Amino acid sequence: MRPTLRDILNVSSAAVLTLLAAASALGAANSDRPNVVIILTDDLGYGDLGGYGHPQFKTPNIDRLAAAGARLTQFNTPAPFCAPTRASLLTGRYPFRCGMSENPAPDGQRGSENDLHLPKSEITLAQLFKGAGYATGMVGKWHLGHAKPEWLPTHRGFDEYFGIPYSNDMRPVHLIESDRRTEYPVVQANLTKRYTERAIDFIKRNQARGFFLYLAHAMPHKPLAASEAFYKKSGAGLYADVMAELDWSVGQVMATLSELGLDEKTLVIFTSDNGAYFGGSTGGLRGMKGSSYEGGYRVPCIARWPGKIPAGHVNHSPAVMMDLFSTTLKAARIAPPADRVIDGRDLMPLFTSGALSPHAAILGQLGPNLATIRDARWKLHVLPAQDPRAKLREQGDSWVDFRAPDGVTILAPFEQYKPRDHPGLTTGDAPVAMQLFDLSADPGEQHDVAAANPETVQRLRRLYDELSKGAPARPTTPTKTGKKKS
To answer: Core-most of 23, 29, 60, 81, by most CB within 10 Å?
Structure first.
């Protein structure tokens, strides 16, 4: 005779009825909560999408996503690097609070990068969604710790994981399934296609249950690679090929949601972890990935939720990556942790109206230091601005990338981009501490106007001191030196 639920649990009939009632109530409570899909690209610049003004890159599916939802024009990352931004997305906290101010790397030049990981004390979106009864899946780049199994996604709230646990140019480039290596070396031309297939499989398997999917694409991080269906098909170079395949991927995910009748039940958010690398576009902003200019921090952000977010909406108020943490939790009616500072704010007012930013100002971190602060109009570089890769232009084609494809350990096309393909502006006033730019009149940060606006400098510096409480170290206000054109 088959055992009953009562036999298995060894509890009374009344307790069984109570458990069944609780399970039914949980299912009913979850039935009107949205699924959440976050698509995070890697190093996709502010100007890399057709809908954000790129003249050559064709991204019709992503543009349709924006046309059917909302597009933000002043969305920022808290740091111009991969891991700090990803940690902030998943914890709702600035990098200096959540313990991830630098990138883990198995082949780091200092050695210590191999041991960097998101502290166990941090609570991730996946843990919160899983605790609320959602299926949780991750596909793609993790970059929050790799040296031990307990640092990987399936030990931080995700039911399943498939991807490269760090950047696709960090040796050894291998694929992880759950917490085990399953493939090495990796043919990177197939990554976008394989990641898309895994994401769609997760959605189909969990369509009858609420799900949280984090699709963290490898592209367009170097080395750029596209499958045969897209390689050399755009007519605008390898970067455009890669963008076309990413766009295809978004189209496939959206088509799957539509086919399964999940459109109105799913909040989809598309964004990037930092600004563009060589070959991409900052959309006319100064700097690039790794820079404390806007080209390092500002990225696209698109959100679609039919019936909740109006089609074709655009908002020009500043927002930051941690806001997606708070926004998705609020949409799913899941309480955030109450025992820590959460820097993120709910962005639904921005996605649905002309609401102003929920932040008085936004900090910009660079490595362990807090380098900048900006509001809706002004940006103050408390530390001298940096764009270290702009100097590589002087080396021209003699520059050698030690993480370039070698045909043995890193399998990708050899025609990668060079420093001559810097994605942003490299001109403007030479960097000094306490430099002020009027982003409304000068989005390219060309002209320092600190001398003409001392009250604004003081106000932003006070906000910087207030918002950065708890940071490991804060610089004192340096004495300004002269400036000159670069």
So the answer is: 81
- Is 82 labeled as catalytic in the residue annotation? yes
Residue of 54, 82, 301, 381 marked catalytic: 82
* Contact predicate 52/284, CB 8 Å: no
Long-range contacts made by residues 230-236, C-beta under 8 angstroms, separation at least 24? 231/189, 231/413, 234/56, 234/57, 234/58, 236/56, 236/57
Looking at the DSSP bridge assignments, the partners of residue 45 are none
Count of other CB atoms within 10 angstroms of residue 335: 10
DSSP-derived 3-state class of residue 460:
helix
191-205 vs 238-259: helix axis angle to the nearest 10?
10
The helices-and-strands tally (H runs, E runs) of the chain is 12, 15
> Bridge partners of 71?
302, 314
**Dist. CA 346–CA 348, nearest whole Å:** 6
Secondary element (H or E) of residue 76? strand 70-76
Token pair belonging to 131? 């605790």
pLDDT band at 31 (very low <50, low <70, confident <90, very high): low
Q: Is 301 a catalytic residue?
A: no
In the structure, what pLDDT confidence band is assigned to residue 30 with cuts at 50, 70 and 90? low
The one catalytic residue among 54, 117, 143, 422: 143
Task: Give 376: exposed, middle or buried? Use CB within 10 Å, 0-12, 13-18, 19+.
Answer: middle
Question: Whole-model pTM above 0.85?
Answer: yes
Distance in Å from the first CA to the final CA of the chain: 84
What residues does each domain of the chain span?
A: 32-360, 366-467
Q: Could you say which architecture CATH assigns to the domain 32-360?
A: 3-Layer(aba) Sandwich (3.40)
The closest alpha carbon to 421, from 240, 264, 249, belongs to: 240
Neighbours of 2 (CB within 10 A): 4
C-alpha–C-alpha distance, residues 260 and 451, integer Å: 58
Matching fold, domains 32-360 and 366-467:
no
- Return the CATH number of the domain spanning residue range 366-467: 3.30.1120
Using alpha carbons, list the distances in angstroms from residue 17 to 2, 8, 11, 12. 19, 14, 10, 9
Question: Bridge-partner residues for 38, per DSSP?
Answer: 214, 269
Residue 215 pLDDT > 60, yes or no? yes
C-alpha to C-alpha distances, 277 to 59, 100, 209, 390, nearest whole angstrom:
18, 21, 38, 11
How confident is the model at residue 121, as a pLDDT? Answer: 98
